[in-house]
Design a protein that fits this description.
Elements (H helix, E strand, L loop, with lengths): L2 H27 L3 H19 L13 H22 L7 H21 L5 H26 L6 H28 L6 H25 L1 H4 L12 H4 L9 H16 L10 H8 L3 H11 L5 H17 L9 H8 L4 H12 L3 H11 L1
């Protein structure tokens, strides 16, 4: 088998696996926007498998330019997908669509205008520098939010998926930049295709083994969160006296010292205060109290305090931003979003309803 034939076979196998993944995700998670992001990522990755060419200098054809642009813009989908994986409160906004459209348009324009004008190397370098930039954003998001995930199995699976995708994306972009203008390399394309197939195969195997639902968290229900105080009395699923004792100690720490008000409070900080390993505290908050994300756990306490303040006639003139900051939020935007996700209304509407009913 020639290198060219091997390259085509590896690409075809990767595209076939991605098609199976897209169909499977569409069947199981097609109604969730996280699932749709995963489908878009799979389709964009298939476009990448069909179009990458290490060292290629020829201007893209009119037919392949949209596929190249789709593959380039897939890095935006990867960034959004990773944000969704590691932040149960993340929601897609119209601005994200504009970012994707801008990257797609930039890549398409460079393929149709700069490439035919003899600037093929510039097109390759520009597209891959753009890809490296979004990979950097993805890495920063991963590092910043990974620790907040309280589901141990999901954390491991997510870490594997993200690291594998980022490792391949980084190596591919650097190879494209380093080889731009040097002429097509069949061996480099075969190696790149083999790496890509390995990543796709590993992700597909993991999803088949553990289920896509374990990787893609279900969307957070937009319903009233149970009272934080009630959690100190009823501990769902608590099977041992040791766990009940730890839960009580944790809730006392939150209620009496209001540690959730502190800036940059971490799960490691709480574990130290309770004199238990961090992994045990994760299991406790997740298994006994039902929270999947540490920030959601903290925000539940913050919102309970804010609700009490907003309903207090003595604080009717206190600005909402002051109440939010006192409760531990760092700015008004995240507070408004978190508050509405829990109560279904904005803080101002909540205050008006409670004070008018008093």
């Amino acid at each position: 088998m020639t290198l060219e034939s091997l390259d085509l076979a590896l690409r075809a196998a990767a595209i076939a696996l991605l098609a199976v993944l897209a169909v499977s995700l569409g069947r199981d998670l097609g109604r969730q926007w996280r699932g749709r992001l995963a489908i878009a990522l799979a389709l964009g990755s298939a476009a990448h498998a069909a179009t990458f060419n290490i060292g290629g200098t020829a201007a893209p054809s009119l037919a392949s330019a949209p596929l190249i642009a789709l593959a380039t813009a897939d890095i935006v989908v990867l960034w959004l997908f990773c944000r969704a994986l590691f932040d149960d409160g993340f929601a897609l906004r119209w601005l994200h669509g504009l970012i994707w459209l801008a990257v797609f348009g930039f890549s398409l324009l460079s393929c149709l205008v700069l490439g035919p004008a003899g600037h093929g190397r510039l097109v390759i370098v520009a597209n891959n520098v753009l890809a490296l930039g979004f990979l950097g954003l993805t890495l920063a998001q991963t590092i910043r939010s990974w620790a907040a995930d309280l589901v141990e199995g999901r954390r491991r699976i997510r870490a594997f998926v993200v690291i594998a995708a980022m490792a391949y994306g980084g190596v591919n972009a650097l190879l494209q930049i380093a080889s731009a203008g040097s002429g097509p390399s069949e061996l480099a394309n075969v190696i790149n295709a083999a790496m890509f197939l390995g990543v796709v195969g590993a992700v597909a195997l993991m999803l088949l083994k553990v289920g896509a639902g374990d990787v893609l968290a279900p969307e957070t229900p937009q319903v009233e969160t149970p009272s934080v105080a009630a959690a100190t009395v009823v501990v769902p699923g608590a099977e041992t006296a040791a766990n009940r004792k730890l839960v009580d100690a944790l809730m006392r720490l939150m209620a009496n010292e209001r540690i959730y008000r502190q800036e940059n409070v971490t799960i490691g900080m709480l574990a130290t205060r309770l004199s238990i390993p961090e992994y045990r505290l994760r299991r406790l908050i997740n298994g006994e109290l039902g929270y999947r994300n540490f920030n959601t756990f903290l925000n539940a306490h913050r919102i309970e305090e804010a609700k009490a303040a907003l309903a207090d006639p003595a604080q009717a003139e206190v600005p909402v931003i002051t109440i939010a900051m006192d409760a531990g939020f760092q700015s008004l935007g995240p507070f408004n979003r978190a508050f509405k996700a829990v109560t279904g209304v904005t803080p101002t509407e909540y205050r008006r309803m409670r004070l008018s009913a008093a």
